[in-house]
Amino acid sequence: MGTRRNLFSALALCLGLVAALAACQMDYSGSVMGTSRELHMKYTAFNTTEAQALDLEAGDEIAVSVVSQEGAVSIAIQKEGAQPIYQGEDLTTQDFTVAVEEAGWYTVTVTGSGAVGSVDVEAQTPA
Question: Of 87, 94, 89, nearest to 118 (Cα)?
């Protein structure tokens, strides 16, 4: 009887651990590289928010490339203290540019929820 009780207790403990591990989602699995002019992210699990400050000049363009294989990705680009110059949610695979009218530091904020794919953001100065 005592052995049977110990066996059931061990089994219940193992099932509890498996359930707890299954409930945990990895925040981020992949690579992130950012500078004052670019942000490159490639991920197999993205369930958090990443931000990168970009030093931009008036007339620059921000080239954005999103590859969305799974989940949801949102991007916001905003100069401190100002309204966002771009805000997009649940982005699909696409390429687009955002014009910069005023020089300064801008924050690119990328948020993922169950996302798999990549985001590339590069500041470009038109010739």
Answer: 94
Beta strands in the chain (DSSP E): 28-34, 38-46, 49-56, 61-79, 84-88, 94-99, 104-124
Q: How far is CA 24 from CA 17, 20, 27, 49, 64, in A?
A: 11, 7, 9, 17, 31
- Using one digit for the tens of pLDDT, what is the confidence trace for 16-52? 544 444 445 689 999 999 999 999 999 999 999 999 9
Dihedral (Cα; 93, 40, 79, 127), 10-degree rounding: -90
Nearest to 55 by CA among 39, 68, 71, 76: 39
Cβ proximity of 71 and 116 under 8 Å = yes
CA dihedral 68, 108, 58, 93 (to 10 degrees): 0
Q: How far apart are CA 109 and CA 43, in angstroms?
A: 15
